[in-house]
Automatic annotation (TrEMBL):
Species this chain originates from: Circinella minor
Entry-linked InterPro entries: CMP_dCMP_dom, Cyt/Deoxycyt_deaminase, Cyt_deam_tetra, Cytidine_deaminase-like
Protein role: This enzyme scavenges exogenous and endogenous cytidine and 2'-deoxycytidine for UMP synthesis.
Keyword Transmembrane attached: no
UniProt name for this protein: Cytidine deaminase
NCBIfam families tied to this protein: cyt_deam_tetra (TIGR01354), PRK05578.1 (NF004064)
Residues that coordinate or bind substrate: N56, V57, E58, N59, A60, S61, Y62
GO CC, any one term: cytosol
Residues at which Zn(2+) binds: C67, C100, C103
Keywords, in A-Z order: Hydrolase, Metal-binding, Zinc
GO term, biological process aspect, one: nucleobase-containing small molecule metabolic process
Amino acid sequence: MSSNNNNNDSVISQEIKDKLYETATLAKDTAYTPYSKFRVGAALLSEDGTIFKGCNVENASYGAAICAERTAYVKAVSEGHKNFKALVVTSDHEEFISPCGICRQFISEFGPAKLPVYLVNVKGETLSTTIEELLPYTFGIEQGRKYLIQ
Ligand SMILES: [Zn+2]
């Protein structure tokens, strides 16, 4: 995985980024995509250094499908992890594949706003961004606490 841009490269070491990319690639290999054939792999780095793999899992009832990013988050949260340091998303394409809207909302729930999100294409090139850049002006837990919880 080679980095070619911006802001968060100092946050996560190249060694960890390489490990995350390797893990996301392995996750992609387990994607269940009989309908779209569009494989996505994700790797989520927890605060304690644990890395969770996620792949997309499709379903004959299309709406029941889950994305790679949310798979990784659900696995992590169900194991007691709620603080994260980085996310890598990869696919089989030269285009950088970024999280869908539902995943952006899901990711932003856990934060932090500056969470590095590395989009890695099939050539190993990286587009570095953050969840804050992917989902600005998010409706998050702070608004939930303020307006929804009595
Ligand atoms: Zn998604």
